[in-house]
Amino acid sequence: MHVRLLTGGVAAACLMSLSLTGGQIAAAASHAPDALAARVVTYDASGSAEFKSAVDRGAAIWNESVDAVELRPVATGQRANIRVLADNGWPRALPTTLGNGTVYIGRQAVDQGYNTIRISAHELGHILGLPDRKPGPCSSLMSGSSAGTSCTNPYPNAAEKAEVEGNFGGELAGRAPAVRAGVIVD
Questions:
Q1: Which residues contact 89 (CB under 8 A, 6 or more apart)?
Q2: 122, 144 in Cβ contact below 8 A?
Q3: Kind and range of the H or E element at 123?
Q4: Which of 118, 84, 116, 122 is nearest to 101 (CA)?
Q5: 165 catalytic per annotation
Q6: Catalytic residue (choose from 50, 70, 123, 163)
Q7: How far apart (Å, rounded) are the C-alpha atoms in residues 135 and 138?
Q8: CA 169/CA 175 separation, integer angstroms
Q9: Containing H/E element for 110?
Q10: Pairing of strands 100-106, 92-97
């Protein structure tokens, strides 16, 4: 959110400059591309049953952690980029392309004692282009189940944040992010 907040300050400064210059820079400012805008990715948690609040919190954690992408609940009548479903299996993500796919919040892991918010943030991380990093410490969100049931950390570490920023900022930098389609089972 750091860049998005800064964008508001820059816009305010431009408006102040505009009023001081008598409107001469209006045309240039209105046609400048908004290179700092986050890519919006929508998610539909209506099928996530008892895990809906954990899914919403997992999305909010990503929104607090990165600037290049923003996860938003899908609007009524809109098609979501991400479908989130609850089932009785193990949690998993089926990414199709970067920012698109299906997430399953499996009750099997929850029944074994894994934290629902960590599961949600981890599986959304797969849709944002991150692989599993097993075995790994609790400080790594993408270490998933290898961190054990006592690990409740739902936050990505600095490297994971940077990777997502690179995945979604890659288009601006002239490089396409690599995404593998397939099932990622944790």
A1: 104, 106, 107, 108
A2: yes
A3: helix 116-127
A4: 84
A5: no
A6: 123
A7: 10
A8: 9
A9: helix 107-111
A10: antiparallel
